[in-house]
Structure formats: structure tokens, C-alpha cells
Batch of 2 targets.
Target 1
Amino acid sequence: MIVVMDKGATPDQIKHMAERVESLGLKSHVIQGTERTVIAAIGEKRAEMKESLASGPGVEDVVPILAPYKVASREVKKEPTQVVVRDLKVGAGMVGVMAGPCSVESEEQIITTARAVKAAGATALRGGAFKPRTSPYSFQGMKEAGLKLLAAAREETGLAIVTEVMSTEDVELVAKYTDVLQVGARNMQNYRLLEAVGQTRTPVLLKRGPSATMEEFLLAAEYILNEGNPNVMLCERGIRTFEAHTRFTLPLASVPYLHHKTHLPVVIDPSHGTGHTYLVPDMAVASVAAGCDGLILEVHPDPERAMSDGYQSLNIPQFEETMKRCRAVATAVGKTLS
Amino acid sequence: MIVVMDKGATPDQIKHMAERVESLGLKSHVIQGTERTVIAAIGEKRAEMKESLASGPGVEDVVPILAPYKVASREVKKEPTQVVVRDLKVGAGMVGVMAGPCSVESEEQIITTARAVKAAGATALRGGAFKPRTSPYSFQGMKEAGLKLLAAAREETGLAIVTEVMSTEDVELVAKYTDVLQVGARNMQNYRLLEAVGQTRTPVLLKRGPSATMEEFLLAAEYILNEGNPNVMLCERGIRTFEAHTRFTLPLASVPYLHHKTHLPVVIDPSHGTGHTYLVPDMAVASVAAGCDGLILEVHPDPERAMSDGYQSLNIPQFEETMKRCRAVATAVGKTLS
Amino acid sequence: MIVVMDKGATPDQIKHMAERVESLGLKSHVIQGTERTVIAAIGEKRAEMKESLASGPGVEDVVPILAPYKVASREVKKEPTQVVVRDLKVGAGMVGVMAGPCSVESEEQIITTARAVKAAGATALRGGAFKPRTSPYSFQGMKEAGLKLLAAAREETGLAIVTEVMSTEDVELVAKYTDVLQVGARNMQNYRLLEAVGQTRTPVLLKRGPSATMEEFLLAAEYILNEGNPNVMLCERGIRTFEAHTRFTLPLASVPYLHHKTHLPVVIDPSHGTGHTYLVPDMAVASVAAGCDGLILEVHPDPERAMSDGYQSLNIPQFEETMKRCRAVATAVGKTLS
Amino acid sequence: MIVVMDKGATPDQIKHMAERVESLGLKSHVIQGTERTVIAAIGEKRAEMKESLASGPGVEDVVPILAPYKVASREVKKEPTQVVVRDLKVGAGMVGVMAGPCSVESEEQIITTARAVKAAGATALRGGAFKPRTSPYSFQGMKEAGLKLLAAAREETGLAIVTEVMSTEDVELVAKYTDVLQVGARNMQNYRLLEAVGQTRTPVLLKRGPSATMEEFLLAAEYILNEGNPNVMLCERGIRTFEAHTRFTLPLASVPYLHHKTHLPVVIDPSHGTGHTYLVPDMAVASVAAGCDGLILEVHPDPERAMSDGYQSLNIPQFEETMKRCRAVATAVGKTLS
């Protein structure tokens, strides 16, 4: 950690800050520059130290040198983590594909979709039973009835199930039915929920919040890992920017960046990441080329009649075609799709 | 709602979409432009209709005309809502001031601060007992012990208490001690929590999420109002943008914009909105000039030793000086501060 | 164009606005909704009409239906435009690769690089002679001497030359030496410069400004096309967002989006789009998979000693390896690289 | 400057980088942390050094300590700069008000406006003669005829004239007529233009680009100052963010931030900063409260018929009312308006 002093900082202020650094159990190291003095603080940092030093007299800035996440860090664990549940394999060379409707709507809808996505090569079925909706007047999901339909679809097809959990009080219920607990973008910093899913041993798909920095994203994963659940998949689903021609902006550089910083696998969601059906296939293919470890895609047998997200869902033939293209590119970059 | 057809949409597609509009219980009205056809859909909309129509064949876009929030809308209730609890009055000409430390740390700290901010003119004491922290390794708050200290400070000074609730299972506990339930920015779209605070009758301070649009913000308020709790204060605390010289970007135009759209009072948080002590006073003053109905400010007797947010806290003399300046400007713009 | 009236708009205001629409030479069409009235304005719009109507009495909003660009639009020209100069082919199934240093620094540097990138399969050499630099104290380029070295490198290798022009008064000079005129991101809305390059017949590589919307980007291209120069390549080089772990955020969905809206070819710049050497190869590969028509890449024989942008440049072996991977993916998606 | 080495950097890499630092004429200072090594580089930096070091082997990051602007810096000149031309005084306690139409449209329009804004207390008249327009099909301004009308309005009222210059070849012409040269947001990084206006001695109003960081903004000012023109006013006119309910997001914290970093005066443009007439007055008042040194406001006698920007212009009575409110707040914060 580097404490940068103001140009006009007095010798007393510099001395005071060096002592503050030592009082926190760190070694201080004063470096006199040509225009300004900095104090290097050496030793094991705690999260609040930076904040504390930043408000000291004569301090202009405190620059951290180390990333604040630990268990998630690639510096701690070099080998990539692979998450495996049923036939779904995500990471370490395998690209898992999770496909299905935004919401579970009926038995026919979910079974039809499950069979079709399995036939096309998906290894997991996604589908929402508890739906976080921007408006209180929107369809909120079928809740437990929806979970039961997902379980029936798994029974029928063998696909692993991925579904969202919105609240600590539902974790036990949802975990009873699902293979992967999804934490949605809006809940990425709902720390109680992160702790609750961290206390299960069910794999977690953690979606990036639309304005979360990479550091905040990895610290959210750290909340889960820190509770003892090592099976965390990071899901990039787009960030909020000034761009309005897409629903969110999908920054695929997250894939190589995260692979550089963490051992956790990286899943891409081109459906939310673009928000328009016609953009999804090209971005799915690009995600595989960028090196992602998994894809999560909204697929609906009749998007025009979907109860949510129809405008960003692929229909079955579109999904089949997308899978073919993704598979060709996976081969070209030395990965195995599903 | 206006359904905009592709330039190349066929007569059959236009006919199909007009029928779809009618099948949703709306009246359709086809308008042939010089280059493209649009279909006006007239009648009572439901939230999912737009999504459904947007994925129709030959549809380029669906443009909503009405805002999706209702109870929060100024069109529904013309007079501004004033939230009153103890001496705190927010809205309708009154500017309430909530001041106090980021975290409750000790009895001495909170009582000292409470007395000082009351003496300077604050009518509510803010302080966190349950703290949402980006890192699992940061101080997480004193929890119930902190709530008890807040209650003691109220006993001592008569100030109303504002404190955050992070989870549905804590709502009852926190509501037992506090006068205002704060829903933090990270939880703005934690819908279960919104419903839970909506089921109490305790006033709610709802913070805007750092990437929430105004529509999402008002729909979050709508979740609370829709459960029957009319006492909602909207708090602008800054949004995430490319700017890195401030912690968040504080868009004060939110004040007149929200006053135009909603009857709910608007509170500004210049501490989180800027993230640096030296920027807080000028922005507090500017907030009052922009017409805000309340201020929430971090104040700590010794910011350098604060367990969180010290770098954006005012010390007591800084707060006193800021209050003087805010009061002068409140008078100049025809408002009453505290 | 749809004029949306306020809920409280009076019959007189509605009548007034309908007349205003007609006075602009458009047909008006009043639609009475259940809660609000809208006026459809039908006919040939001019750019200032929207602005004019938006400030009318009782008007809440004016919603345009048509895109404001014309010559660039795919609605006007269905077949994709291919830009061809020497061996460089960009668009219509061909992926052109422009590679070279940020700045021309010396004869040896540029000739070495030109030979190496040609050997690896590039068909154009990029290199800056006039450099727009954020700081007045940074190296500003070799100017005409640099242009001469680029011409020498072309003589030696046959590669097409791509170099930036910063100012109208340099257009003639730069066009004398180069095969492609690059308009940099900072100058995307320097309309005089756009007009000047539009008056040449030299192909133009137009870079997207870091906060330009797609509409602004296409309208900037329209300035060039409108002067009679049809050879415009659009270059996505990343946008400014809150993300700080990359220099810019590279939104690859621009590729399918632009292909949907315009016939102009789309080039991606993963060097500026990420700002870090280690992220460039994966994003180059992903760009090809997303369907781009060209790549522009910073390559330097000794990045550690580059006079600019070393931290985002590939060295020669890294470029060779990247080209191999891009070629494999191009084949997998049915395109031809260089 | 702090060179941060990778956790896995070898002793050879550390030695190599320390030598590189010394080879650039700096003193190196190696600090062994508990997890990682950093090298402090001490001495007079040049702009390209950071870039060069950042691509060295084993380097994770290079953290600059000093701001790269010099002449603009408050560290170099403590006293605030006041720009004075005719009756317009901007800075050092004086709040100058520049008001007028977006575009000069006719003699009657500009003379009427000039008289009215002068009567209400403005000390400068703004008006565009050369207009940068997003679309090539929009009204591009009256050019020299417009400049002559502005000069006539000055003759009539004595107001100082503020008008935009878009291109180096027009600087001489525009400077012949105007008192203040405005460099627009789109040209903030048109370095040739910055140099050209820097070579005049006419005061410059430099608008912040919508995605410019504060450092880029101050470096753009530095280009002008560095040519010898000390009369630079910085104008915050809003940044591009995800917010769509305003045209741009107006970050008023720029005022105290810039006052902290530079001696140059800070002008706010609430018209472009909000993009809606109804938001302008409150934001003008808030700007004064935030401590700005000047306001630039769009005022038109008949906004509904304005040839540009009518939807964000004040009419005359609105401007008069806004001036009254601004004057009251200026007094309350100890400033003098106009």
C-alpha cells in the first residue's frame, strides 16, 4: 500500500502518517520524491486500513498494491477450477452449455424445451421459477410449482438444472430441486444471500452486477468461497453503459481478464448481454472464441408468446444453428463444447 | 404503445401484429408512414405486453408511451408527500438532515456524534449496525448491539434514527429500534426486501442503485408502496460512470427530474455521492439549492480512526460549518432546513 | 415521428401541435389513448423538426421512428460494401489485417515490422506519423518524415499503408503517401475533417469516439459518404465505461449490430479496445468469430522500447501466433483472413 | 512512479526493471513487500516513461504519483485565475453569466435576445455561427454572417461575445469578431485547434468532452496554456453515462474538484448538461451554490421556433426568473453574480 502525501504536506504530517502506518502493525518506508513524499506500508493488510489512512492529515491518496480477494485469486490456486454436475462440465477445457426459457411457464413448455436443447447438445437446462422483475406488476414466476417442473424435466432428460434463488429463506427449498443455484445480477451484492449459498455445497452461478467492477465481482465470489463452497462459476452478462442499442454492453475481455486473475470458470450470457435475439448467435460464437468456459442461453419454443424475455430468446432452430457454429469454433480454439 | 414495423415488413406481418395487439385486449391503429408502418396499441397495458410484441415477426421496436410506475407517479398524486417522524420532516418545503457515522462503533462514539449533530441542527441520526461490505474481510457492523446504542442515542437526544436493513429476516428486529428503515444501494432491486419493508409502516429511505435508471428506481419504490407503506423517501447517492476522481458521480438533476415525475421526497447523500470529505460541503449546499427535501451526511468525531468511510466523513466542525452554509442557501431558495 | 402529449395537455395544445406538424409539411394523425394523446407526424422529416416540436406547449416527448442516416443505411444499399486497396480486402467475406506500430519511430523499426507482419499474413501496415497525444509533453510523431518511411516500407513489401490524419490542412499531404486515411477516435466528430477526407477518394478508416452512440457513429460516416467518398470502414475501438481494468470496454456486439444497420465494413481494434498486450490475442480471435471484416493491431518489434502504446502492442512472435489462431477461427466461421 | 512487479516476478526481472528505471535517468528504489516487490522511480518524469515501463517483463502495473499537467495545476499557481473581458468577469469571487441562443438565426433574433439577457443581468452573449451538428443534414450555422450579427449585438449592448470556433482555418476569422473563443465538447481533443487558439491571446472557453476524464480535460487546457494563452475557462457541460432521462449527466462535483486541482475558473452549462428546459433553472441555481465561476445558458425568445436546441432553451421570462434565483444564492454563498 502506498500512502501518497500532498505536495504541501509538512514534515510533521509525514511523520504522523508513518507512525499511523506502524500503529496498524505494518512497516513504513518513507520515500522522498523530487516533488512529493510517499510512504510504502509493508505487511499483511486488513480491508479497513486503506480507508483509515486515506483520511489522515496531508494525505492525497492511498494506492493499494494487492488485490483484496484471496481464495478466488489465481495467485493462490494456479490450476483452473472445473465445476462438474451431472453431464455439465464447466472449465478446464470444457465449455458447458446451459439453455432454456427465461421463465418456467408450463409442463409442456419446459419439457419440450428440455428435449430440444438436449438434442442440440446442451448439458444443462436453465429456467426461472422465482423471477426478480423490475416491475411489481410483471409475472413473478411459478415458484415451487416451477421447481417441480424443472425436476420433472431433469427426470425426463438427465439435464442438470440451473435456476435462480432470490432470497435466503428460499435457499433450502431451491437447493432441494436444482443442480446449480443461480445468484442474479441484482443480488450480486446481497451478502446474506451469498453467505447462504456459500453454506450449501451446491454449485453456484454468480452473475456480475451491471455496474460491478471486477474487484467487486471477485469479492462477491469470495463471500461464497469463504463460507466453504468452492464450486463457483462467474457469469458475465453485460454491464450498464451509455449504449442503448443493446440492453447491456457485453465486454468479452472479461474472459481473458478473469482467467488471468482467478481460477474460477467464466460463463457468458449473450442473451442478457445483448437483449436482442438477432445479436445472440454471433456473440455466443465470439464468447467461445474468447475462451469462455460456459454459455447460458435463453431458448423458448415460441418466443413471441414467452411470458418474459421473448425478444432476446432463441427459438429451437436458432439454438440448433448456434450450437453448430459454437462447436466449430470451440474445435478451432482447442476446446470441447458440452 | 407504438409497435414500429421493419421497413421490409410484409402486409401479412403487419396484419398479424395488428391482430396480436387486439388479442391482448388492446385496440390497434395502423398508421402507414412514407417509409414504414407503425401500429398504435391503445388501452390498459400490462408489463409483459411490450416484451411479447417486441419478438413478433417484422417488428423492429416497441416504444412505450406511458411510464410503468403508477402509485409513485405525480400523475396519480399531485401534492408532494411529506415524511414526518419525530422532529424529522422531509418534503413539502422542509429539508430534513440525517447525520452520523457510517458505522456505530461504540457508545461514546455514537452519543458524542448524536449530541453534536443535534446541536448543529440535524433532526435525525444515521448510523449502520448491519453493514453491507464489499469485502467479506471488512468490519460487518455491531448488529443488534449497534441498534441498542442507536436507541440509547435517541433516548438521550430525541433524534429520529435512520439505519440500514440488509435482509428480510432482520426487518422485524431493525424496525423495533429504528424510526427509518434504510434500504441500501446494493439492495435496491432485492425485491423480497422491498416487499418486507413495504409490509411495515416504518418510513423507508430507499437508495438508488449505482446503475439503476430512474424508471427502475421508481419501480423499486413502487414495490414498497404497492405493499401499503406510503412513507418512502428516494435517496440519490450517485451513479457509476467512467469518472474515477469521485467515488460515484452525483447527478443533482435527479432532484428536479424526480420532483417532476413523482410526489415522493428526494434526499441527497453527498458523502457517498462524492467519496471525498473535501467535496462534501459544496455538494451538500448545491443539493439544497437544487431543491432537495433532505440530506444524509456521514459525520464522525474522528474520521481518521473511523472503522469505515472515514475518507468521506465530515468531522464535527466541518459539519457545523456545512449546516450554516446549507441553511443560508435554504433560505435563499425558500425552503426550511430542519 | 410520434409527438407524445402530457397527460394534462389541453385540447387547445393538442390542436396547436397538430397544426405545427402540418405547418412543417407533414401529415398529422391524432391518436387518443386511454391516458394520453399522441400525434403521429407522417412524411419526409428534416433533422431540426424533432427539436422544434419537442419544445411545443404540452409536449412530453418526441419519439423518432426513422434512423437519421441515409447513405450509410442498409435499407438503402442491401449488399455489403467491400473496401479494396492493393492486397487489402475488407468486407464481404474477407477479413483484412492491418498491423504495425503505434508510431513510426525509425526506418529500421518500420521496415522490420512491415516485413514481419507481411510474412505473418497482414495485408496492410499501420503506423502513426501525426500522433494525437493526450499530453502536450508526449511524443507527437515524426510527421512528414514518418510518412516517407511508411511509403518506403510499402515500396519494400507491397503492403497497403494506413495512417492517421489529424487536421484538414494535412489531408492533402497525408493522402499523397497513404492508401487509407485514418480518422482517430478523438476526431470522430471533427466535422471539417470528415468533410475534407470525404472530398478525397482515398479509403477512410473511421474510428468510433469513446462515447459516441451508434447513431452518432453512423452520422459521422454519413458526413464522409455525403461528400462523395464511398470507401468508409467503421472501426470499433472500445468505449468509455466505468470499467478500469481495461483501457476501454470493447463491445463486440457492435459487429452484428452494425452489419444489421449498415452496408459498411466493420473493423475491430483490440489493441486500444483492451489496452493490455495479454488481452489482445483472445479479443482478436473473438472479433473474427463475431464476424468482423477487419482487424487493426499494434505490433512492435520491441514493445518495451516503443515510444508509445508499448503496453498494448504485440511483439512479432505474439502477432504470428495470433494470426494463426485468427485464421483457424475465420475458417470455422466461413470467412477468409487476409 | 511506482512499478508494481508480478507476484511471480523473478529476481532477474526485478533487477532488469530497476536498471530500466535508472536508464531513463530516474533513481530506483526497490521495496520488498510481504507478497510482492515494487520499485519506486524518483525524479523528473516524461510522459512516455510510464508507457515504456508498463510493458517490461514481470511488470504488473505502473502507478503514477504525480498529475501530468503542470501549468494548469494549482500546485504551480495558488491564486485563482480571473478571466476578464469587457464587463464579463469569471473567477475569483465573480460569477459571469453568458446567455443567448444556440444558433444565431437573424438580426432580430440576436438583437432581441442580447437586449433581454443584458437587462436581466448577463454580461456576455453566446450564440453559434459555426455549428458542429451530429447530422450533415442539420442546420450548420450562418458562418461569417452570423459573426457579423454577433458583433452588431455587441455594438448595441456592450455585451462580450462568446462563440464557437470549429477549425484551425477559422480561428483568425472568428477571433476578429469575438471576445471569447469557445472550443466545443466534440473538439476538446482536437489538438491542432487547441494549439491554434493557444496562439491567440483571446480568452478561451474550453468545454469538457462527454467522455473526458478530468486529467484529459486539464491536459487539453494545458495544450492551450502551453502555447502562451493564459486565459482559459473550463466548462463542465455534462458527461455521457447510462442515464437517458437527461441528455447528459451533469456532475457538479467537478466544481470543487477542479478548484482543488487547478487555478482556472470553472463555468457550468446546465442547458447541455440536462437537455431539458424544465431542469435548467434548478441546475443553474445549484451550480452557483456549488461554487462555479460562470454560467453559460441557452436563451431564445421563441424556443418553439429555434433552429436548434429549442427543447433545452429558456425563454426570456424563464431566464429572468433564473437570474433572480441565482443572484439570491450567489449572495448566500458569498459570491457576486455578474
Note: Chain A touches chain B through 52 residues (CB under 8 Å).
Target 2
Amino acid sequence: MTRTRGRPRRNPGSPTGLGSEQDILHAAGELFVTKGFGRTSTRAIAEGAGLQQASVYHWFSSKDEILLRLVLGTVIPSHRIADRLLESDAPGHVLLWALAYADARLLHEDPQNLGVLYFEPALDGDHFSEFHEVRDSLHEAYRVLLERTTGERATDVDVAMVVGLVENVITYRRRTRSPIPDDTPARVADAALTLARVPDLLTDETRARGTEILAALDPPGPGSVD
Amino acid sequence: MTRTRGRPRRNPGSPTGLGSEQDILHAAGELFVTKGFGRTSTRAIAEGAGLQQASVYHWFSSKDEILLRLVLGTVIPSHRIADRLLESDAPGHVLLWALAYADARLLHEDPQNLGVLYFEPALDGDHFSEFHEVRDSLHEAYRVLLERTTGERATDVDVAMVVGLVENVITYRRRTRSPIPDDTPARVADAALTLARVPDLLTDETRARGTEILAALDPPGPGSVD
């Protein structure tokens, strides 16, 4: 268990075992998703994290900053994977399958399904431009890989539909009380190639190569996906 | 302009021109979508509608009831269309195309994009079971038409992906500041057939028959789509 830095804690020990900053993010994520961003006070976040309210302000300047960190956490890992896939000289369809699979898997595995926060009106504010930039850049990677796959120009609607299939993991989880099927990420990646209208390229070999390329990317340490 | 029933109005005239009940729904929709459900007071709704707060309680027992009416309005029209399509003996793929097209078109044309409220945590409460039942029943119609199209059993993930393509209209509108392309509903309906893996059935004839069937359903009067 990591020892806390900063202000004195109300309760000994960190609920997440990862220190105050992560405790705050975890408690805030839980409250934002179950009660709503607008109905969550900094005081409630502090209580959820087992901290004094002053400690929350030691780590984050505002509730907006906490929300920003949470939504950035839903796109940065996929964006990093996308950046590395774009450098690969593997065939476009293998890379598109790999990106859709990795991105859908991250959304599937997020314990709090924080993607539901994409619909929070506060995200329209200027504080959140970094989130929108990373997300747009991730979607641009889908466009590039879609074009490499089909050899044709991809329209905004083409890209939106592939992105929509992937982000639908968030909605599907939100809609379904019970856990969604484990094969959802692979099915989503298959559907991305189906939508790209390259049925002949949707093979076990494509899936195997995509999985292999992702395994070679996974750095050991925090943030990697097992 | 419809004259108002009920309590006296603070301002003469109805902002929507449709009377107090619609004024309340319109003002609440605007506030829920732009500020968030949790941060909207009944007082603010009354002000937006140009009414006294007491008038809001004359029409709706609570903010939850207003939210229920708003989200029901996003699924009931499509659900009615689905019910009638299910009775048709036209081929499954024509009906699936028609349902996806009509549903996507309604989501596309909703001036407030109220589907973003699907992510409001309050919808988990018992008050909202009617909404979940109608929405589930709409999704069941997709399952039936998907199975008629392919002749095979559709899994939950199959259905979720087709539904996800359609509901992605909400997310796509939310993500894009400018209006999304006008051909989005038709592209979504095409994509539903592509996902069903019946490329040979995705023809101009399918689209023409689907459009014709929908035109024959449209009842004249309020709620019909031109």
C-alpha cells in the first residue's frame, strides 16, 4: 500500500491502496456516474475518499479538474495505442481491427464505465479542450486506418459509425444491468471491418495478427492491459 | 396559438405556442441538456417556461416526472413505428432498413437531442421503468427484424451493435458542434444491413420499398414526420 503525501488524512489507509490522488479520482468517478456530476459536492468526494475537503483542493483545483482527469483517462490509453499503430507498416485492416479491439477492450474493462461522463454538459466548457483534442485525434486515427483498409476516402459519417460501434460499449454497459458478454470487444472489432466492407479480410489471421501487434505494444507497468 | 389551461401565467403567451405543458417540457429539455438534470431547479424550469413555479407542479408532480416524459418522447414514436412494421409481411431486410432509418431520423431531427439524457443517473430509479420497458421493447423489434433478415438467431451483442449504430446519432450530434450530415439516417440504415451481412440486399430497391412503407404508416397530425 502506497503511503499518502500531502495533508493529514481523516482515515488511515487509502481506499484504493494507491494514495490520495487516486482515492479522490475513484470516489469522484463513483459519485459522478451514480449520482451525476451536478449533484456531487467536493465534500461528498472527500468523504468517499476518506479525506478532509482541504485535501481534495490540495490535489485538484476544482471539481472540473477532477472530471477532466477522469475523462482523459478514458481516451489517453487508446490514443497512445493508436499513435503506435499508425507507425506500423502492417496492413490497414489488421491495424483497424487492432485499434477497435484495444479501444473497445479498455472501455469494456473500465470498472466505473466512465465513458458515460461524455454526456455531461460541463464538458462543453473551455476547461475541457484537452479532452476534446485527444478524443478528436483518436478519431482521426480511425479515419486514417479506415482509409488504409478500404483504399478510399472516408467521410465523416463513415468515421462516426466506426467510432460509434466502439463507443457503443459504453452505452451497452449502461443499458444492461448485468455484465455484457466477454467477446464484445472482439465482436466490435469484427463489426468495424464489416462496416468497412472488406468481408474477405475479416479472417482468423487478421484477428491473430492484430492481437499479436497489440501484445507487442503493451508496455509492462501501470496502465498496461493484461 | 393554444390558450393555456390551469394556473395564471406570469407572462402572456406561450414560448412554444403549444401551451404550458409543452412550454415546461421545452424549457426543462433545454436546461437538462445544457446544464444537466442535477443542476436544474424547478424554479429555473418555471422561469424558462415563463410560468410561476406552482404552475409547474400543476402539470408535473416532480422533476423526475418531467424527465420521464422527455425520455419517453425519444422512444415512443419509434416504438409505434416498430409495432406497425412488425405486422408487415414485407421482407425482413426492408423492414429492418425502414426501422433503422425512421428511428435514426427521429433522433436526428429532435431539436434538443434529448437522447443525451439516457446517460442521466436518475434514470436508474424506479420512476423510470416505463421508459426502460418501451426502449427494451423497441430493441426487441430490432432483434426480430434482424432475425427475419438473416434467418439466424441474433445474439444480444448483434442486437446491441445495430441499436448502437442508430443511437450513435445522439452521440455523433453531441460530439459535433456543427449539424451532422443530412444523409446520416440513410447511412445508418444502410450500415444496419451491412452489419447484418446481407450486402446483396442493400439495394436502391430496398431503400425505396422501406421509404414507401414508412410513408404509408405516417399518420397525419402532430407527431408525424414529414
Note: The CA atoms of residues 81 and 217 of chain B lie 7 Å apart.
